[in-house]
Amino acid sequence: MKILLYSLNHFPERTGIGKYQSEMAAWFAEKGHEVVVVCAPPYYPEWQVGEGYSAWRYRRETIDGAKVYRIPLYVPAKPSGLKRLIHLASFALLSAPVMLWLAFRQRPDVILLTAPPLMCAPIALLAGWLGKSKTCMHVQDFEVDAAFQLGMLKKPWLYKLALKLEKAALRSFSHVSTISPNMRRKLIEKGVAEEKALLIPNWANTSMFDPVKGGGKWEKEFRKTPDSVLAVYSGNLGKKQGLETLIDAAKILKEEKNIHFVICGDGAGRSDMVESTEGIDNITFLPLQPMDDFVHLMIAADIHLLPQKAGAADLVMPSKLGNILASGRPVVAGASEGTQVYDAVEGCGLAVPPEQSELFAQAILHLAKDKNLRSTMGKKGQERAASEWKKESIMASLEEVLCV
To answer: Mean of the pLDDT values across residues 113-135?
Structure first.
């Protein structure tokens, strides 16, 4: 089968959508499919184009058996609402000729668009018509709703218009998949026929994050005493993460000398976070780590931290959660009852209402003082990751959909 994957993000990005797109392309290629990827140069979450790549040139390469076409785009150093729109529009506009050329010349059996960016939907559909290809969409974030809830899209009339365009786009694809049951229900609410709305969750790399690998160099660096407790956040430092709660919790717990916070990652909010913690000695910032060091950091953690913005509930599903659970460590999450994150965390950690710093800090302290509870919840998380987020079964389900 000829598969054309259309996504903003791809390898060597190690977080978020890029990670899963890369693994998806490699899996299809390994199964013998002819895979072509159209994507941007790596830039996320640093908002800086990676070394060896250019934001202004087209490029072609082969990665893990897939042919990859890199599309130039505008990458703002400090992304604001307007700059993000220009960023996404530049990718959509400059990817259009490549997508149409590939559709006409190679006649893919299926085109799979990963959203965001939703504004690439018309190009994917036109390419599908030109190549007589099946067109599918995979929704990682509801970017229109999230943009309004988080204040990036402020004009009500613009929000209504964006929602109408979104609904029209979603209904035009053969199938639309997304990563959690609650997000699937939202697809149906937006007009996608129930039989066309599919659940394809992000998988956990259970073997990669097996706790038997140990904490590596981080044990020596951060575990100063036998009762040290390491509370770790790793990922994008952006607006959807509700990271103010994390910083506030560290300040609240500054007198708990055995608890140390580690924030590992990069993003548009990093400099403000570092500035806001000046003078606080219970928190360490790390840049994005090489994969081996990152795996050991995840396992070295005693508690994982997953704050969220209240307005982002069920508009996004943190892709890191599966790997957090696979690491055999409990998690403290900002999630309201009834949301998908709340359900996923139940029994594997503690969930408190989003943006409630005091409650978030209390949950961390509760786990820090109870080693047996941490162990019990960590084991439960491992079991859940192995049973519900197995890569092979999830990818086989997606393959079946695309092949129909």
So the answer is: 95
Mean pLDDT, the chain, as a whole number? 91
Q: Which residues 6+ apart lie within 8 Å of 205 measured at CB?
A: 322, 323, 326, 391
What's 279-290 look like in SS3? CCCCEEEECCCC
Spatial contact of 302 and 3, defined as CB atoms under 8 Å apart: no
Greater model confidence, 396 or 77: 396
DSSP for 89-143, written as a single string: HHHHHHHHHHHHHHHHHH--SEEEEEES-GGGHHHHHHHHHHHT-EEEEEESB-H
**Pick the residue with more confidence: 147 or 109?**
109
Which tokens in the block code for residue 19? 């990670």
Question: Domains of the chain (ranges plus CATH)?
Answer: 2-203+390-403 (3.40.50.2000), 211-388 (3.40.50.2000)
Spatial separation of the C-alpha atoms in residues 126 and 370, rounded to whole Å: 57
How much of the chain, in percent, has pLDDT values that exceed 90?
Answer: 68
Q: What is the pLDDT of residues 264-323, one digit of tens each?
A: 988 877 888 888 888 888 999 999 898 899 999 999 999 999 998 876 666 677 888 999
CA distance 149 to 141: 13
In the three-class reduction of DSSP (H, G, I as helix; E, B as strand; rest coil), residue 363 is classed as: helix
